[in-house]
Write a structure and sequence with these properties.
Structural class: alpha+beta
Number of strands: 7
Radius of gyration: 18 Å
Number of helices: 3
Shape: globular
Largest sheet: 4 strands, antiparallel
Distance between the termini: 46 Å
Helix content: 10-25%
Strand content: 25-35%
Order of helices and strands: HHEEHEEEEE
């Protein structure tokens, strides 16, 4: 496989040696992924007469984040719990049962827009406002 990748890389002119697998535990590793998946940062599900606001996607890429703040319908963003990375595991970003639930409950149909602040471990902050379906809204 490495021989095939080397041939492809040489053909494209980008080969710099064997590529190590990324552990996705730093801002440098997770920022590109989170940047390409903004419409998945949150999810709102109507269930049992309530809106459930999920942050599962953010939890799945939490290593490299120092914190998350979320504001509902223009309210000031509040800190949300962020489980620790499981650095002793093969998949540090895995969501374990002991991490708790990656959602909070709100009154049915009360969530119209969500503002998300991501605090990366490189001391940068990214803010995004999305509608109920997770689609970005211009400020």
């Amino acid at each position: 496989m490495l021989k095939f990748l080397s041939v492809v890389a040489l053909t494209c002119g980008t080969f710099v040696g064997p590529v190590a697998a990324a552990s996705f535990t730093t801002a440098a590793e997770v920022k590109p992924i989170l940047g390409m998946t903004k419409s998945s940062w949150i999810s709102v599900r109507e269930f049992d007469g309530q809106d459930l606001l999920y942050v599962t996607h953010l939890w799945a890429w939490r290593c490299g984040l120092e914190g998350i703040r979320i504001g509902i319908n223009g309210a000031a963003p509040e800190n949300w719990p962020l489980p620790e990375c499981h650095l002793d595991q093969a998949t540090p970003n895995a969501i374990m049962e002991e991490d708790g639930d990656p959602y909070k409950r709100y009154p049915l149909k009360s969530i119209e827009r969500v503002t998300i602040d991501l605090f990366y471990d490189d001391q940068t902050v990214e803010t995004l406002t999305v509608d109920r379906l997770g689609q970005p809204i211009s400020p």
